[in-house]
Amino acid sequence: MAKTILPYVISGISVGGQYALIAIGYTMVYGILRLINFAHGDVFMVAGLMMVYMAASMPLYIAIPLMIILTVFLGFMIERVAYRPLRTAPRMSVMISAIGVSYLIQNLALYITGGLNKNYPAIPWISDRVTVFGMETSRVTIITPFLTIVLVVLLVLLINHTKIGMAMRAVSLNFETSQLMGIRINNVISATFIIGTFLAAVGSMLFFTNYPGVVPTSGAMPGLKAFVAAVFGGIGSIPGAVIGAFIIGIAESLIKGLDTILIVHGTITEQIGFATFSDAFTFVLLIIVLVFKPTGLFGEKTTDKV
Amino acid sequence: MRKDKPCVLKVEDVTMQFGGVVAVNNFSMEEYEGEIVAIIGPNGAGKTTAFNVITGVYAPTNGRVSFNGERVIENYPRGKMKKAYLGQNAGKYTEHLEPTPDKLTALGMARTFQNIRLWKSMTVFENVLIAKHLKRTSNVFSATFGANRVEEQMQRDEADALIETVGLADVRDELATSLPYGKQRRLEIARALATEPKLLLLDEPAAGMNPQETVELTRFIGEIRDQFHVSILLIEHHMDLVMDISERIYVLDFGSMIASGTPAEIQQNEKVIDAYLGVTDDA
Amino acid sequence: MKTINDSRNRQKTSWGSLLLVLVFLAIVFYLDQNIKPTNKMFMLLTVLQKGSVYALAAVSMNLLNGYTGLFSLGHAGFMLIGAYTYAIFTIPSSARDTVYQYFDAAIRFSFPETFSNVMGPAGTALGVLVAVILAGLMAAFFAYLIGLPVLRLKSDYLAIATLGFAEIIRAVFQWQKLGPITNGSNLLKSFARTSKFKLEVGDTKLVLSTFVPVLIATVSIIIIVKLVNSTYGRAFKSIRDDEVAAEAMGINLARHKMISFTVSSFFAGVSGAMMAMVLSIAQASNFKSAMTYEILLMVVLGGIGSISGSVIGSFLFVAASEWWLRGLDSGTFLGINAPGVFRNGFRLVVFSIIIMIVVLFFRKGIMGEKEISDLFRDRKKKAKGAAK
Predict the structure, then answer these.
(1) Mutate to test the interface with A, among C68, C145, C167, C304 (most CBs of A within 10 A)
(2) Is B108 left (phi over 0), alpha (psi -120 to 50) or beta?
């Protein structure tokens, strides 16, 4: 039994780590701007595509840092061009703008790739096959959770012990007051987007290594799931997003393998097709969380003033 | 006190606690038909919180509110509050009644807001007309397919009549938010009256008004009481207005009631002078 | 005096609008008879067909997002329910086994067939109509179920919950275990579709391929307009403008939000059914969140809070992407021949840039919150003012 479940758990932890890296971008942006950055998942996809094209024309030790820099620049520009002009507009307008950006990026990617699946380059060492606990997997599966945790710890240190981190915390507590206190809101927001897209770029390397390739819609589903993870953990909370992402990653992976697990266990004799619900389950979880604990696992409660 | 008249509003031992903060502590009051009653107190005394409890925005932590002799709101410290409760009279109330504000409006309570909350994209006429929605007998189908034409026309006429009465006929088709401040306040009162209330609750109706407008408003409040046969409960900072028109006054300080009585009595009450009026004398 | 004028004016506008609608329907009917598939203008009919599907979808979304202020992104899900309900109940029994080739079809029942057995040709039309209404009712029923828990949520939480719901629906309909009903992840086809809609009077055959979807959309949109202008529509707008004030004025938020949500979903379901009949196929994998986004962008293009805007927005959207900008995908546009740039997908890029420009710089869209009838009224007012 344990032997059947273990591979699913391990791959779930790995996927969870990748979601966590995307989820942080969502949760930080939401914490500060109260905006669901629908384009974040697409930025993640662009990071994957850039890697595909750049790895074909330059050595990896140049391609990887360049890909990260360009992705960060893209995230920064999206905020500058599509969100900043709407700073005083109703929240709905900004959300629509985010949806518009997502639409634009997907269509651009469709145009450039011609809608074809682009094979993700093999990155030496992390794509190598290794054997752990008697099961074979790629090394990326093993290092993802560790890398995620290291990055998150660094991020938390940054937020708790640097000036920009303090400004971020202040802005997410109260936008207007921080502005009055002389915090340069725009810099803080740019920094948030830079950090968020940086992590998504790193996440894309880990994520796509495990998948056959990149298509224009590759970012949409991981993006949504990462957002759900952020909501699950309590939007605005970084540890919450990370824990939420691991839970969702593991749950998703277990559901994908549920048929096999149950057949081995003898509970059922034929395929039921639970795997169809591996994506949908995330959203069931989301609706349950929103209904019973709208603030997520670690979110703070706020009351509306009349 | 018009004790010969029936009691419109009865608040018993209402306590409202947010986390560890007791915003309103053991507040009780009564209002009789046709009265104008005021709740006063310094900033942060818990006046608006008390208002929000009475109108169903917050469920009280403990206590009861009756309206027209009918218990409408009741609560006792439950769940997490059981341990955290800092107020008195625990155990006195045992029921849990928590109606949403619209239910109370349907029973005959209507309110205005401290920071005017008119429907921004709509005209004066529409603002009043929508408040008539409550009195409809049509359902969504009959309304959509025009089977409620008679009622629709009646409500439109009533809204127009009301606008005429409160003196807003000349701005009927203006956007509500384009009106000057004083008229917006007046419109908010008209909108509340459109729900045909028995009790009108005014949350700082004179806030932000100049002396001239305040005098007009004082007269206006007296007029609507007589014309629409409503009882009025108001929160106010303008002492002139309060002393002028209210028949009885309740004084809150730090969430607790420190005095109640006629304007003359309140003006002489030492505690009140210390807590509140003394400050205005200095100023 | 004012009130009498007011009601008279209201009646006048509604008669005027009705006349316009009838003229429009007559033109569509005429075009349907006279533009043959070989004609260069045949694209116009395609645009009218698809445009009316999206117009209804956009208007029903606008009812929710624009008029009630409920930001919901579950539209594709409700359209999917509508499309499937319609398709399943109009597949003729002769075609059933070919369509459900991997399953044993559970529902062996087709409205058009059953009714035509009883009533002759008119029964076929009635059967289609019943299936369309049932499609709406199913969508509304699911909306009711999901609305109970999620309508309490605030703006963006509601958006993401409804988006999630649409994804759940999509997965459920593709589940192999439901294959006998939904045909699993395979597509549904051979059901009653617009390309087959004809009316035979004696020897003359009248083509109704475009007329029927346009008619369904028109009637549905008129109903929505009626609702929006009724006392309920005003209540919705008050919720959008200020929820707290609306509740304090006696408007039951839960009930009114639910009404708006179910009515909106009903018409989303109808538009889903129309989409199935226009495209001749129904497949769950097509109803992705991207579809919801597209509809939302049509609403934004036309102006959130304007029904005429949504209609104009969707027709422009469809016309631009299906017709006018075609050249951008196939090498030559406006006489410029550049196959390197103008290749597959470029049209959508240009199109999304236009949309972003609207979102960023023309936030009110084409119509803002105005309706076409307002424009006429304003002009009349101005004329009157000038005469004085």
Answers:
(1) C167
(2) left
Q: Cβ of C250 under 8 Å from any chain B Cβ? A: yes
Q: Is residue C370 part of a domain?
A: no
Torsion of CA B70, B76, B80, B81, to 10 degrees: 110
Q: How far off is chain A from C289, nearest CA to CA, in Å? A: 9
Task: List per-block mean pLDDT (blocks of 10 residues) for chain A, which spans 306 residues.
Answer: 80 90 90 89 95 91 94 96 90 89 93 88 80 77 89 92 90 86 90 94 90 87 90 86 93 88 79 82 88 77 51
Distance from CA of B268 to the nearest CA of C (A): 36
CATH number at residue B241: 3.40.50.300
* B111 shares contact with chain A (CB less than 8 Å): no
In a domain, B113, yes or no: no
Going by pLDDT thresholds of 50, 70 and 90, the confidence category of residue B89 is confident
Q: What are the residues whose beta carbons fall under 8 Å from the beta carbon of B186, sequence distance 6 or more?
A: B166, B167, B168, B217, B220
Question: Which of B239, B246, B247 is closest to B273 using CA atoms?
Answer: B239
Q: Are residues B5 and B99 in the same domain?
A: yes
Pairing of strands C336-337, B256-261: unpaired
Both B50 and B4 in one domain: the answer is yes
Give me C127's structure tokens.
Answer: 């059967």
Inter-chain CB proximity C248 and B110 less than 8 Å: yes
Q: Which residues contact C376 (CB under 8 A, 6 or more apart)?
A: none
Nearest by CB: C245 against B113, B143, B156: B113
Model's pTM, two decimal places? Answer: 0.91
Same domain, B170 and B127: yes
Kindly state whether residue C336 falls inside one of the protein's structural domains.
no
Query: Number of structural domains, chain A?
Result: 1
Q: Does C156 contact chain A (CB < 8 Å)?
A: yes
Chain A CB contacts of C157 below 8 Å: 231, 290, 294
Match 């273990």 to its residue by tokens: A6
Does B35 share its domain with B153? no
Q: For the purposes of burial, counting CB atoms within 10 Å of the CB of B9, is it exposed (0-12), middle (13-18) or buried (19 or more)?
A: buried
- B6 exposure class (CB count in 10 Å sphere: 0-12, 13-18, 19+): exposed
ipTM of this model? Answer: 0.90
- Nearest-5° Cα angle at C188, C184 to C191: 150
User: Considering its fold, how many domains does chain B have in total?
Assistant: 2
Chains with 3 or more CB pairs closer than 8 angstroms to B? A, C
At A148, which CATH number? 1.10.3470
For chain A, list the contacting chains (3+ Cβ pairs, <8 Å). B, C
Interface of A with C in 83-112 (CB under 8 A): 85-86, 89, 91-93, 95-97, 99-104, 106-108, 110-112
The rounded distance, in Å, linking the Cα atoms of B73 and B14 is: 10
Cross-chain residue pair C249–B105, CB shorter than 8 Å: yes
Structural domain for B181, as ranges: 118-196
Cβ neighbours of residue B79 under 8 Å, at least 6 residues apart?
A: none
Compute the distance between CA of residue B139 and CA of residue C302 in angstroms, rounded to an integer: 30
Whether C59 contacts chain B with CB within 8 A: no
Q: How far is the CA of A178 from the CAs of A162, A164, A171, A233, B158, in angstroms?
A: 16, 13, 6, 25, 48
pLDDT at C74 over 90: yes
Tokens (6 digits) for B154: 């009646």
Is residue B256 included in any domain, yes or no? yes
Do the strands B62-67 and B7-18 form a parallel or antiparallel pair, or are they unpaired? Answer: antiparallel
Residue of A232, A217, A207, A219 whose CA lies nearest to A283: A232
Range from A85-94, A289-298, B148-157, C20-29 carrying the lowest mean pLDDT: A289-298
In a domain, B127, yes or no: yes
